[in-house]
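To the wet lab folks,

You asked to see what we're planning to order before we commit. Fair enough. Below is the target structure as tokens, and below that is the sequence we designed to fit it. If anything looks off to you, flag it before the synthesis order goes out.
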């Protein structure tokens, strides 16, 4: 006989871990106990020595599907006399923490019960178990027990309580457990009146969708706005009412088979759609698909997701008379955060929705859908949120407790503890008051559930970012040191951490994006760095160009194109589409701004160069959402073109004049814009290769990290990746966090840690 005390840390609470331990103990005739604590899971196991060994090996090799064991520490102790194996009540340990599981899409077993007429939860829209259901969106504090969730008001009926207390049941200590007798319910509301509840409400909502109406649906982490994705009029009405003229809508389909009707799907893309996180996956539209262009104007791709809650499954249930694909977009007015309460939905979405499908389970944390695509068989995030946050990201070294507050756009924040980084769900653009409040509240919430009190705070060096101003205030209030970090250094570091780079030596960072505050006070964005976590050196960058009107120019790519031509000494010829699109009066204003340097900051941004080229060739002169011009420029690429425009490297500058003169020459010779786009993209990829090759020759470094929002461009990414691989470079791409500003908080935290460690 032997006895072991075992401590396990990781995602081991709310995922069926204790019943797994209980049943495994039964299998190997182990006596003792298991319990949750604020620091993980503790086990006292007594039994035959060989059985104890097998017991521990089974825990390591076959944990529950949602569990993630980070550490398992076993200690031999004096053998105790136990007559059985028990699950003890949770133990609270001050300052200790255990990682929290993200929200998880409905599992196959719950899905089978949902559609089984013999099951007592048949067609119940809040069915869940320890393997699926809400987590982050309902947790108020840890340990993760029902009283500390938004399920606390719902008192379990006798049947649910039996399941909840049975260690061998799939719903043992499933904190959101519910059934039609005791749990939340759904109802349909129109014109401020509850008209139907339960399945009748869902069926009526389906009928309204079939009739071309728009329905606001309370989901897991906020509201969706839904309509028939095959109905052009319904889509037009949604765009008009939501004030979202061009930005693509996501769609939801019942299953992968339906998705393949509209999109081409690789094996790995099918896996992404079907995975437990159930993100929005960016897929290529089939040439013969019949969806209205208005779903994703100017795009060859569309964002597709599968139903991840029982409510969504019931809404999308297959039926001949019902649409097999729904627009499922964020429940908000354009550029505002998604709404989360019934009251705010009715108030803020009343001018959009024809009906409201509501329920009475409160959402504690607003969480958007995650967005990603498949890149060479790997996940490539555009937005990391539902299903993934707050999963811990392992770090290559031990860290101090640091709060990194990210940037202004696509904000996330990050908390580090031990060898983990906990990156928040997608917060959004902080210029919106509600989003900023969610950012501030989210930081406090994460500190509570992770039981961490930051010793240091890190932020972007841009003095006007609201995240920076928050960091200044937080630093003063909490009396902790503040570390300000250059934007593109954070991008590079984020990519390196994402690849578990250990910090030895130096790496080339190719950081291409729209905006980042530079050390010289200019706007950077086309940067070639050499460095590590602690420091960097800027060795190449795009030559500076003026932005007349500052931020206003970003919404008007034709102003950018005109300013670039002026700076490069090229004529404003009316035959150039960008110039032709600008009125004579506005041209005079632009010239005055440029000559007097009035509100005309300089930029080395690659994102702005893409905008300028898109307008130059007549593709997009004004944008209605971020990066629209650059995205549409990518979409028209002719993948069969290998020709490329030439950039020129002079000293530490990448010179742009030849690019513009060659494009204008091609316009004069009626070269198709698809060819021009391809030659431009190919030219950027060739330029990256030339620059990093020069740096390798100069310094001998052969590892390259690609980071920044421009690398969301899949044509450019894949082209550049192939060129660098052929040239023998080691390439670091993002894996677990977005390449855009949604990932920089991770880089900020690592840079701060290294600076503080020296």
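Sequence we intend to order:
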């Amino acid at each position: 006989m032997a006895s072991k005390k075992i401590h396990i840390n990781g995602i081991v609470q709310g995922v069926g871990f204790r019943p797994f331990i209980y049943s495994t103990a039964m299998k190997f005739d182990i006596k003792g106990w298991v319990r949750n604590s604020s620091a993980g899971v503790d086990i006292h196991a007594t039994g035959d020595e060989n059985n104890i060994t097998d017991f521990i090996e089974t825990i390591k090799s076959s944990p529950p599907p949602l569990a993630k064991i980070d550490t398992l520490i076993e200690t031999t102790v004096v053998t105790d006399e136990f007559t059985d194996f028990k699950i003890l009540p949770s133990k609270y340990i001050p300052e200790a923490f255990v990682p929290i599981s993200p929200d998880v899409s409905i599992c196959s077993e719950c899905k089978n019960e949902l559609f089984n007429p013999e099951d007592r939860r048949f067609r119940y829209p809040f069915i869940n178990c320890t393997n699926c259901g809400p987590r982050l969106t309902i947790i108020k504090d840890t340990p993760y027990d029902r009283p500390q969730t938004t399920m606390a008001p719902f008192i379990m009926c006798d049947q649910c309580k039996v399941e909840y207390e049975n260690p061998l049941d799939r719903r043992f200590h499933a904190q959101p457990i519910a059934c039609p007798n005791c749990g939340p319910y759904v109802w349909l509301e129109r014109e401020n009146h509850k008209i139907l509840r339960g399945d009748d409400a869902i069926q009526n909502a389906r009928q309204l969708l079939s009739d071309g109406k728009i329905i606001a649906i309370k989901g897991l982490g906020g509201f969706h706005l839904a309509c028939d994705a095959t109905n052009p009029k319904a889509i037009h009405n949604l765009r008009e009412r939501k004030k979202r003229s061009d930005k693509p809508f996501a769609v939801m389909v019942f299953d992968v088979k339906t998705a393949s009707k509209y999109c081409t799907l690789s094996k790995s893309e099918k896996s992404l759609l079907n995975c437990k996180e159930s993100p929005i996956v960016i897929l290529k539209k089939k040439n013969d698909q019949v969806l209205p262009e208005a779903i994703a104007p100017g795009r060859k791709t569309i964002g597709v997701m599968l139903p991840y809650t029982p409510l969504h499954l019931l809404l999308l249930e297959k039926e001949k008379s019902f649409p097999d694909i729904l627009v499922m977009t964020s429940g908000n007015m354009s550029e505002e955060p998604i709404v989360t309460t019934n009251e705010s939905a009715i108030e803020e979405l009343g001018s959009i929705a024809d009906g409201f499908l509501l329920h009475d389970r409160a959402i504690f944390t607003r969480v958007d859908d995650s967005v990603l695509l498949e890149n060479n068989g790997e996940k490539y995030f555009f937005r990391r949120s539902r299903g993934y946050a707050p999963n811990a990201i392992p770090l290559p070294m031990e860290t101090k407790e640091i709060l990194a507050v990210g940037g202004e756009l696509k904000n996330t924040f990050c908390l580090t503890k031990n060898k983990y980084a906990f990156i928040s769900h997608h917060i959004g653009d902080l210029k919106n008051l509600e989003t900023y409040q969610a950012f501030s509240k989210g930081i406090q919430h994460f500190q509570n559930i992770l039981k961490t009190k930051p010793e240091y705070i890190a932020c972007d060096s841009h003095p006007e970012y609201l995240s920076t101003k928050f960091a200044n205030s937080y630093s003063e209030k909490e009396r902790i040191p503040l570390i300000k970090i250059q934007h593109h250094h954070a991008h590079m570091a984020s990519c390196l951490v994402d690849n578990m780079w250990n910090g030895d030596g130096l790496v080339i960072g190719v950081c291409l994006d729209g905006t980042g505050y530079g050390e010289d006070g200019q706007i950077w964005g086309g940067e070639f760095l050499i460095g590590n976590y602690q420091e960097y050196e800027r060795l190449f960058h795009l030559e500076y160009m003026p932005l007349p009107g500052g931020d206003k120019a970003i919404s008007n790519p034709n102003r950018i194109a005109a300013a670039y031509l002026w700076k490069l000494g090229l004529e404003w010829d009316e035959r150039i589409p960008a110039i032709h699109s600008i009125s004579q009066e506005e041209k005079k204003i632009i010239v005055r701004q440029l000559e007097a340097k009035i509100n005309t900051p300089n930029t080395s941004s690659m994102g702005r160069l893409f905008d300028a080229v898109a307008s130059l060739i007549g593709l997009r002169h004004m944008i209605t959402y971020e990066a629209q011009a650059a995205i549409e420029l990518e979409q028209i690429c002719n993948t069969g073109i290998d020709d490329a425009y030439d950039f020129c490297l002079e000293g530490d500058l990448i010179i742009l004049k030849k690019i513009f003169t060659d494009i204008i020459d091609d316009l004069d010779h009626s070269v198709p814009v698809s060819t021009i786009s391809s030659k431009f993209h190919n030219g950027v990829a060739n330029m990256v290769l030339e620059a990093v090759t020069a740096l390798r020759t100069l310094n001998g470094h052969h590892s390259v990290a690609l980071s920044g929002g421009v690398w969301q461009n899949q044509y450019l990414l894949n082209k550049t990746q192939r060129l660098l691989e052929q040239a023998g470079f080691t390439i670091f791409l993002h894996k677990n966090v977005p390449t855009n500003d949604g990932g920089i908080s991770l880089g900020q935290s690592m840079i701060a840690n290294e600076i503080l460690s020296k």
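Structural context that might help your review: The mean pLDDT is 94. The two ends are 50 Å apart (CA to CA).

Thanks,
Computational group
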